[in-house]
Target: Cytoplasmic tRNA 2-thiolation protein 2
Amino acid sequence: MCQVDEEYNGQLDHRVTPRVSKKCVKCKENTTVLIIRAGDAFCRGCFKEYFIHKFRAMLGKNRVIFPGEKVLLAVSGGPASSSMLSQVQEGLSRDAPKKLRFVPGIIYIDEGGASGQSMEERKRAVAQLESVFRATNYHYHIVHLEQVLSLPSSVLEAGSSATGKPPTGSSYKAAVDHLIPTRKNQNQHPDLSVENAQSHLSNLSMQEVQNGVTSPITPEHTQALKRLFASVRTPTAKEDLLHTLRQHLILHTARTQGYTKVMMGDSCSRLAIKLLSNISLGRGASLATDTGFSDPRHGDVVIVRPMRDYSSKEIAYYNRMFDIPSVFIPGLDSKAQDKASIQRLTESFVTKLQTDFPSTVSTIYRTSEKLHTACPPQNTNTQLSAKCLLCVCALDTKLEEFSAYQATLISEQLSQRRGPGPEFTPGTTAAPGSPPASSAGQGHSSGGGQSQGCETGDGGCCSSAKEPETVDLKSLLCYSCRLTIKDMTALDALPQYILSEAERRRSQMREEISEFLLDEEEDEAIPRVNGS
Model:
């Protein structure tokens, strides 16, 4: 038997509890109030300076936001986006040593219609957020998710950027030099100051909300939105579809209101979870744009993530210590089990692993920084047929014949066969992109074991009385978006702007190949020439 107490008691290693340093590691004077990680013990003042400097350094290092630009802050009410709003306020305040030089605006997407909230709960959440937005004196937009049903199809097109080229150091310096005389003029005329302009924009925003300029939602719109999400079978596809629709609303608002940049509040912890979940969802080809600092896929509107260096622990400490207001709003994954969706399972896995191994999130995050897309850069000259209809990323489905994706397609086609038909022999595979046998063989007769060709009766492929064709979305989507649409039971529940853009792209593709297609008269004359 094991005799621990008698023989090994003196040799057992005891776990040493780390002791909190009494002095701050930065100023060496004040008492430590928190420890971010091992060796990083800060006092209250030094932690605030560290937090603010990291935000300024992220913007200054990338130099994507130019002086005088209109920047839209996407605020959901959570800790990360609320902290981002606080950092922008800090950078635009009069006491800031190096003030930020852009004009901010705020947008909030009300997703209560998709998560099943009542109208009273949604109004209560909007009222709480409006009180926070009014205190900033920034122009804000309250957009309901139901408004996605009335978006124009142009939101799916990539706009032309202002310069057409990526920003460089010389262009950034030129923008700063152009801003200096403007600032001197504002100092001579206080009535033209940025603060007064922001206050004026805030007043206009309040008048717009009171006058009902923002389109009100109707019960019909809410029911249509519920019908859309009810047609999606899995929670994984629902969360992915909700993210896509949210991005479309933010993009449309930015374009209509003249914003050229959009700030998202994705933290380091959130991006680590997003990286692993996107790989599981088949978005490996677009990881660089989905998790990087800047996302220029839309052309005229660039999405930036200035909070990507902050962990959720740092954000929670900062909000608690400096009373940053945040509003909890339940979403689709609220009170969901760990295995409810791929996104929820990945979040649970990373969070629990981070508890035992504190370097988990930082390791995943540093890996995402090294990712670069292998696809050609997206610009306005890229054809729309080379971009996904929903996420506007480069299509990763137009690959060579011998690839893992084509092998997946062939396996899917073979699994859809009800049984080996007369024309199916082991060792032969269907051509990539061809329809499965269950649908491709509907127009062939199996009588006598000979194919009789196309049926000319009702319902045949050459019959004029065949059913109208539905819009083909599969060929216009990337691999991940195909999986999302595949989980839908009714495609007609999609917003009309998606269906209209899909039909327009299909028509454009038909026009491009129209000269290679046979007319109906030539098609009917071919059997007579061959004597069949």
